[in-house]
Amino acid sequence: MFTIDETGVMNNYAVEPEIYFATFPSVEQQRRYMLQGAAAILLVTATILTALAVS
Q1: Phi and psi (nearest 5°) for 46?
Q2: What angle do CA 29, 33, 38 make, to 5 degrees?
Q3: What's the CA gap between 31 and 17, in Å, rounded?
Q4: What pLDDT, on the 0 to 100 scale, is given for residue 5?
């Protein structure tokens, strides 16, 4: 989309997507998020402990 004013200057506008509300995650998605969080914590902890053991 664009407009042209009386001096001939063109203004470009981005097309905005339709707005919608997010839905609450299902119980299965919540469990998956908890598992991913636990895996991330284990990975970070293992990385820190490895760095401390090597140094």
Answers
A1: -65, -40
A2: 150
A3: 31
A4: 78
DSSP-assigned letter for residue 26: P
Q: How many CB atoms lie under 10 A from the CB of residue 47?
A: 10
CB contact set of 5 (below 8 Å; sequence gap of 6+): 11
Q: The whole model's pTM is what?
A: 0.58
Closest to 10 measured CA to CA, from 2, 18, 1: 2
pLDDT digits (tens, 9 = 90+) for 28-43: 999 999 999 999 999 9
**pLDDT value for 8:** 78
- HSE of 38 in the Cβ direction (CA atoms, 13 Å)? 6
Tokens of 26: 């299902």
